[in-house]
Structures are given as structure tokens and as C-alpha cells.
Amino acid sequence: MTFNEECNVNPMQGTVFSRKPLYALTLLFCAGGTCGAAFAGTISGPGRTAQVLPGSPVETWAVSNYATLEVQGGSTREIFASSGGFVHLVGGTVNASTNPALPLLGAIRLTGGGGQGARALIERSQVTDSTGRALVMLLGAEDDVRRASITANASNITGRTDGAFIASGGLLRLDQGTLLTGQGGAGVYLTTGRVEVAGGSVVDGQGNGIVINDTTRIAAEQRGRTVVVDGSTVSGRTGAGILVTWTPGFEPVTTASITLANGASVTGGNGIAVQTDANTETDLAIDASDIVGDLVSNGGRLDVDMRNSATLTGRTQGVGAMAIGGGSTWNVTGDSDVASLALNAGAIAFQPSADGAHRTLRIAGPFSGSGGTVTLNTVLNGGGALENQLTDRLLIQGDVTTTGPTELVVVPTGSGAGTDLNKDGFVDAHEGISLVQVGGSSRADAFTLRGGYVAAGPYQYTLHAFGPGQADPAQSVLPSGDLNWDYRLGNNIVCEDGCDPVDPVAPTNPDPDHPNPDPDPNPDPGPGRDAVVPQVPSYLSAPAALLTYGDMMTDGLRQRLGDIRQGTSHDPVGGEVFARYLGGQLRYGSNRSFRDYGYDFDQQVNALQFGGSLIALDGDNGSFRAGWAADHGTTRVTPKAADGNSSAKYRANGVSGWVTWQHGDGFWVDGVINATRYRGDVGTDLRGAEVGRIRANGWTMSVEAGKPFALGNEWTVEPRFQLKHQSLNFRDFRDADGLDVRLGTAKQTSATMGGRISRTANPVFMPYASVDLTHTSNGDPSVDVSSEEWNAADRFRSGRVGNGYRVSAGAVSQLGKRVQIYGEANYRHAIGSYGLRGFAGNLGVRVTF
Fold first, then answer.
1. 91, 153, 592, 816: which sits with the fewest CB atoms below 10 Å from its CB?
2. 520 and 667 Cβ atoms separated by less than 8 Å
3. Sign of the C-alpha dihedral computed for residues 424, 427, 428 and 431 taken in this order
């Protein structure tokens, strides 16, 4: 054995280590009296080539000095290449049994250094060492010329110990589905060099898939350790998928760079994907890959960068700086800790456990980034005492320096409960459930709830931030105990005119004679109440709003047909057609109190109705008409709710049948039956459009009578009376928050008495004015809102339409014998403390023929 420098032998491993680059190895070394095999085939010199074909002798080969060995379908024993030698296997077989006492031996051994390192290209071949390592690379440098390199495509490589051993800056490329197996050790053992696993290849080791350990004393240019797994698999059967470790007595630290890209998979039989030990420094990049397993650092530095929609499913231990960006997701499966965390458009999702246990992520330093989300599993209960808070948590020892809010997504379980333990109508710092705690600086809007709230049945849980001087130190679960900011989930308590903030009350020492005083049996409930989810006010407003729409569509004979005394049919069975537009802007005041979930609302109505008579008979003693009408309209309803903004837009389509009889003295009776189908969509500011879909069918029956009386000088007064009954049948539905809503049936009966005064001197312009008083009964059905998931239900009452008066002014214009135009504007107002007020209008045309 001759070297051009001083050498050391590791007595534990029988391995040669050099303090300077090794450039010439002329003979395999011997150890303990045992030597490597003799070379039966030797080829050396530039341009020299040897071929091993099917049927060629099975020999051990040495290739050096830029010579080439071609194994094309043939078989060999060991192959050793150095000094620019090139080994090319195509469909060949290498079957070796090297001495396991000499760990630097292998089925194919390459050395680097000198002018050029040895190279090997293995294609569709089988390489096996039944006692030692299959591939070994030694004595080189990291530059592309002097390093030894092996490329394996679509091949099967197996070592009895390690699959491959790479030192001195060697380069190993596995591609096209190559399988590299270490039956008794690692798939790859890397001291210095580069490993590339691509094209669906697999590295499998009985212990670890890949071990990175700097067990050399070599020049600085040979010290890099890089692993790239691209769309391929690395697995350790009993240990971690990738292990970065350190052996005492060699370099001060083992440094490594690991990239897992494009669908790479790394798994460990012990559940650890990547493990680093003390005195190691590792940069791990997870790029567009789905890694299942833990990341564990036992005293070394392990920094992690997730990007391009990467996924990590596992826990972390001792990890340093962690960055989650580019749509990447960390699925947390156990208690974890990192030194710092940057969340940039990435996600952290705590995974639910089979036993119901909850997890904690501890960040020892700063939390930074922008646009991230954190998903936590939380039991929605009364909270309060720490032992009663069952939730995943994010604990940040350092500062929160994020730009923009981090979104919290709460996956709720439990049955829901009131968190206002002292019943004072406010959320206090010791109430609710703590989701995020910060020991450093932060801000109130650093964290927000996705959708603004969590629905527990019909009620809201919202996020409440308690800052310096407000957070309760007794609620701290930070490792340091210093709680500066606390973000807590609790009932959303709303007040009619906004809840005034309450300064936190410092805890007082209990009376030693009464350490556990009885609670006040009648505590002051305070000005607030629990908020319902924002769409519930729209649900509760639906009956009154749709009854109002139906009332407008069957408002009266004069509004529908104008003045039936003007214009006659000249056909004994003649007819008429009409069309009219109706519009209104109304405001409703509820008869129910704020604490009883009463909601005012604004309503806008736009509708078009057209129809005609099927029968129109005029005689000396009276006339009879029977006809039809169809209508289409929309109404938008916007509740005034402290619980949150919502609105509902309804589309209505109706048909009517009507009959009108008028006596010769002017007395008339009008009857209408109407059926309407309503289709409504409820949206909220926090959840967007189509949170709930309301479907209802309504019918109305109206009977109206009146008689004009002449006052002289072409003035006429006409008293009238109308009795109307409406019924609305709502379809049950489930909304976007999983609430089952049952609006049931709403019925309303109304009686209207009024009078109209008009002047008919000029048929082209006949003005009139009217006043009506209306009394309504019923119309406030119960509304059941329940949640099967929460096993929770509550019953609310909608509001009544109430009593009111209406003042109208309008005109009728008879344009010839056949065409009449008519219209009016009116203002209505409630009588009493609740009901409707606002303006409405009607404009129509009727043509007789």
C-alpha cells in the first residue's frame, strides 16, 4: 500500500483516513493479515478498452489511467477504478463478496483525485456485494473533474452492509427507477460528497435510508455533504429515513444540505423522517413534496424551509428556524417545538387524535410572516379554568412580527356552552378558551378567526385579544410563564348600542373565613346577550318580510285596475288587460326586545304584475269581471343586527285569480286568490353569499268591498273594507354553518278600513287621496334553529307586522274609451311601538277591448 501522504487507520472500523487529499492508491491495503482479492483483469492507459460480454470469464477488474471497461451483458466480480478510469455497465452483473473486515472494499470501488476521478455508468444492471458494500467512492475532491462519480439508471444495487459508501466529494446519481438497498446498514452512507436520487428511484436501508456523517479528516474543498431527493423515495426500516450524525474525534461539526423535491418521500421505521444529532448543522428544504414523519434534532441545528405546496405530516423536536411558505402545510401530529417560525401564505394544521388529546406548538423565538393560517381542534365548552380548556395551542415565547393577521381556523367539537362564567355580560381575561399565547410583543389584530366566528349551534364564539395589563397571568401555559398577550375564544356578547369596555379587575384575596363564597343567585345580567350567527337575523326576519311582500301584491282593487267606472267594453263577453309596477322602501321595527332577539330590518320591493279579464260583462244594473294575473318581483331584506351583517334577496313568482262585481249604484265587491313561490338566498359579510337558501310557498285570499258616494261638484268619497288572510309554508333547510332551520308556517290575518276622496270632473285627470287603518293578528311564528353536530337547538320568535295607517295620493287618467293610466304614492307608519313605515308606489295601465 503506497500513499503520497501520511495516513491513519481507525482501529474501530479498519478504515483509512487521511489528513491531506489522497491522490494515488496503487494497491488495496491489508488489515489484520487479510488482503483484498487479486485483479485477474487489468486495463490501464488512455484509449485502452476492455469488454465483458455474455460468456466472458467472470473476473475481478482494475481500471486506471483513463482506460475503459465495458460490461455489456456479461458478469464480473469486483471492479476497481482509479485515475480517470471509466466503467460502463449495460445489462451487466457485478456479483462480489468483499471482505467485511475491510469496509472500504465494495463491489464497485472508485477513487478520485489526481488529474481526474474515476467514473461509472450503470444501466439496467445488477450490482451485488453479498458481504460488504455495493458501491464505494474514495479519495477525491468536490470539483466535477477530480471527484469520483457513479450514475445508475434503471438498475438494482444491493449491499450486505451499506448500499453505497461515498467519501472524498464523490457524486452518486440514481435515476430511472434504480433500487439501492443496504441490507444490514444504510442505503447510502455519505461522509463528504453529493447524492442525487431522481426519477422514481428508491434508497432503502435496514437502519437508515441515508446516513450523513463526516468521519474524515480531509481538505476543506472536500467537506460538502448534499442530498437531493427528487420525485423519489428514501426509507429507513428501523431508523430515521435520513440521519445526520457526528463521530467524536473528527470534524467539529457535520454540515449537510438536504432537498426533498417534486413528490419526494422520506420515511423512517421509527416514525422519524429526518433526524440530526449533536454537533451537526443541517439545512432541510421540502419543495413540492409530501413528507410523512417527524423532524427531530437532538442537539444539532436543523433549519427547515417548506415551499411550493409542500406538506409535512409529523411533529418537530429541537428544530431551529422553520419557514412555511408558498401554499405549504404542516400537519402537526404531536407536541412540537421550533426556535422560530415564519408563516408566509402557508398553513399549520393540528391533526385530531384518536384519543381526543390535544397538541401544543411552542415557538421559542419570533413568529413572523404574512397571510398564514393555523387550524386548531377545540372543544367548545365553558372554558375558564385551564384544566377545563381542551384545545390545541400555539405558544410563542418571542415577538409576533407578522404583517397582516394570521387566520385561525377552529375545528369545533363538544356541545357548546356559555363562557360568561360570572354573568356580567362581558368576556373577561379568565373566561373562554386560550388558543394563542405570546410572551413578547404583539398586537390585537395579529390573529383573527376565519369567517369571523365559530358556530356552536345558532350561537357565536369569537376571538378576544387581551394585551399587556389585561391578560390574566394565572392563565399562562408559556414555558417562561410570562404572558403578555392572550387570544381567547369565547361567546360573542353583543349590546344593543355597543358594549362599553370594562377595565380588568385585579383578583382579590378570598376571605379566610369564607374561601369559597356562594355565587350571587341573581347576578346582574349586564347590557349584553350572546350573539347568534349573523344569518339568523335574516331567518327570523323572513316571515314578516314575505308577508309584507304578499300584502303589497294583493293591495286592492283600485291599485290593481284603476277606476273601473271609467271605460266600458263594447263586446258582451269582452275583456281587458292591465300591467302595473309596484315598488317600496320600508323599515320594520320589531315587537320583540333586543335581549329577546328582536330585529328591525329594511326592505326594498320591486315587482311587475300583469293580467287580464277572462270575462267582462257590463249591464244596466252592474258589471261582472273575472280574470287572472301573474307577477314577478324581488325583495331585499337587510336586518339591523348587532350580531353581524346579513341580507336576504328573494325572488317571487305568483299567479292570481280574481272576480269583481259592481252594482249600478256603485257598490262593488272584489275577491282575489293568489299563490306565490319564494326563492331566497341569505348572505353575510363574514361567510359570503349563499349561506342559507330559504324556500317558501304562500297563498293569499282577499275580499274587499266599497261604495262611492257623491258629495257634489264632482267630488266623491268612497269608504272601503278589506279582509285578507295569508299563509306561508317554509321548507326546512340546512345552512353553511350546519344549522338546521325550521321556519314552519306563518299565518296572518289583516283587516283594513279606510276611505278615498276623489274628483272626477275631468276624466283625463282624476286625482284622489285616501287614508287606511290596518289591524293584523298572528304572523309571528316560532323559528327552530338546531345543530345535529352539536346536539343543540333553540327556538326563537319572529316579529309581528303590527298595526298601522297608510296615507295615499294618486290620479287616474282615462285616455279615450279604452286606455286608462293610474298610479299612486303612499306612506305607511306603524301604530304603536312596532310595525312598518316607509314609502311605496304603484303605476299601471289598463286597456279594454
1. 816
2. no
3. positive
Nearest Cα to Cα of residue 431 among 395, 462, 396: 462
- d(Cα 344, Cα 325) in Å, to the nearest integer? 5
pLDDT at 259 over 70: yes
pLDDT at 217 over 60: no
Q: Cα separation of 365 and 556, whole Å?
A: 73
Instruction: Retrieve residue 359's grid coordinates.
Output: 397538541
Q: Global pTM? A: 0.80
* pLDDT value, residue 808: 97
pLDDT in tens, 693-727: 999 999 999 999 999 999 988 899 999 999 999 99
HSE-up of residue 124 (Cα within 13 Å, Cβ side): 5
| Residue pLDDT, tens place only, 346-374 | 999 999 998 889 999 999 999 999 999 99
% of the chain beyond a pLDDT of 90? 71
The Cα 298–Cα 389 span in angstroms is 31
Alpha-carbon torsion, ordered 98, 102, 107, 112, to 10 deg:
-160
- The CA distances from residue 471 to 77, 284, 444, 490, 507, in Å, are 73, 37, 12, 14, 12
Record the cell numbers describing residue 251, joined without a space. Answer: 470534524
Distance CA 696, CA 608 (A): 20
CA distance 781 to 795: 10
Cell digits of residue 490: 369565547
Evaluate whether 24 touches 111 at the Cβ level (below 8 Å).
no
What is the layout of strands, in order, in the sheet containing 75-76?
Answer: 75-76, 93-96, 126-129, 156-159, 179-182, 202-205, 233-236, 265-268
How many Å apart are CA 401 and CA 406, to the nearest integer? 11
Where would I find the H helices in 470-604?
Answer: 536-553, 557-561
In the chain, where are the structural domains located? 38-245, 532-848
- pLDDT > 70 in the chain, percent: 88
Give the tens place of pLDDT for each residue, 143-156: 566 789 999 999 99
H/E run at residue 264? none
Write the CATH number of the domain with boundaries 532-848: 2.40.128.130
